[in-house]
Design a protein that fits this description.
Catalyzes the oxidation of 5,10-methylenetetrahydrofolate to 5,10-methenyltetrahydrofolate and then the hydrolysis of 5,10-methenyltetrahydrofolate to 10-formyltetrahydrofolate. The chain has 291 residues and is an alpha/beta fold. It is 40% helix and 16% strand. The strands form three sheets. A six-stranded parallel beta sheet has the order 1-11-8-7-5-6. The structure holds the ligand Nc1nc2c(c(=O)[nH]1)N[C@@H](CN(C=O)c1ccc(C(=O)N[C@@H](CCC(=O)O)C(=O)O)cc1)CN2.
Length: 291
């Protein structure tokens, strides 16, 4: 079998076009969504990501506010900036780019963001709302994976889904979203025994383990849908957590790296900013952008 390629780049472009249309309609009502992105320090990958976020925010017609702080910024100064952004009516979404410098308490910083403006969906209130099936802001990468899976499979109900990785950003919210869609979900991680056997039973594999080419082709159940969240910089360039060449021989469909999940992360950030703007203005959630 040779897998169908899931083109996340094209899907994300289509999503951004729909978002742009919705933003244009909001503007006729005098509402312009605004997204504030905060970068502390000079991590080169983060620099690339926030540049792309700024550019794509402007391309869909939203206002982009970029805040760059030096790596040795005291945490109190970052919290003071977040307070100002929370109070600013022109700002509908706030994102603090991760990772933060080591002297900062990531949870304290994230939980200082107004949950209604938490377009990353990392605030403890949004985490709890997602876990209990309430209306939440949903983390961008797993939301993007869910959109790709639904597009590929239609219904996820009754599918065996294996999430490899238990991070707060991807693994845990991904498991919640799959459960919400009535998949039967297993969460595996670096200490899981018999990972290969678990993988061979999965109709859906979401790999977010952070190890280059970790998931081998012969672990994949023939016909399974494989979503690769990994972004690993190696001597061969950027590779995912799945050994793409061998997995393509077994999977029914698979995301590439680059060009798979990554572009969906930024498109879903814009989707969440639009959703936050609609909610702040008492409007219904935009269609097809929330789980
Ligand atoms: N506050 C947040 N911090 C981080 C998040 C997040 O969702 N919120 N996720 C990642 C980084 N990230 C967005 O911030 C991100 C990662 C990758 C991509 C992407 O488009 N990747 C491309 C490849 C780009 C490259 O060459 O590096 C792809 O996969 O095709 C976008 C956003 C950690 N921090």
């Amino acid at each position: 079998m040779t897998a169908t390629l899931i083109d996340g780049k094209a899907f994300a472009a289509g999503l951004r076009t729909r978002i742009g249309t919705a933003v244009a309609a909001l503007k006729t009502q005098g509402i312009t969504p605004g997204l504030a992105v905060v970068l502390v320090g000079e991590d080169p990958a983060s620099e690339v990501y926030i540049r792309s976020k700024g550019r794509m925010t402007r391309e869909v017609g939203m206002n982009s506010f970029e805040h760059r702080l030096p790596a040795d910024t005291p945490q109190a100064d970052l919290l003071a900036l977040i307070d100002r952004l929370n109070a600013d009516p022109a700002v509908n979404g706030i994102l603090v780019q991760l990772p933060l410098p080591r002297h900062m308490d990531e949870a304290a910083v994230i939980n200082a963001i107004d949950p209604a403006k938490d377009v990353d969906g990392f605030h403890i209130l949004n985490v709890g709302r997602l876990a209990t099936g309430q209306k939440a802001m949903v983390p961008c990468t797993p939301l993007g994976c869910l959109m790709l899976l639904r597009d590929q499979l239609g219904s996820l109900s009754g599918k065996n889904a294996l999430v490899i990785g238990r991070s707060n950003i991807v693994g845990k919210p991904m498991a919640q979203l799959l459960l919400r869609d009535s998949a039967t979900v297993t969460v595996a991680h670096s200490r899981t025994a018999n990972l290969r056997d678990l993988c061979r039973q999965a109709d859906i594999v979401v790999a977010a383990v952070g190890r280059a080419r970790f998931v081998q082709g012969d672990w994949i159940k023939p016909g399974a849908v494989v979503i690769d969240v990994g972004i690993n910089r190696t001597d061969d360039g950027l590779v995912g957590d799945v050994d793409f060449v061998s997995a393509s021989q077994f999977a029914g469909a698979i995301t590439p790296v680059p060009g798979g999940v990554g572009p969906m992360t930024i498109a879903c950030l814009l989707a969440n900013t639009l959703t936050a703007t609609a909610r702040a203005n008492g409007l219904p959630d935009p269609q097809g952008l929330t789980p």
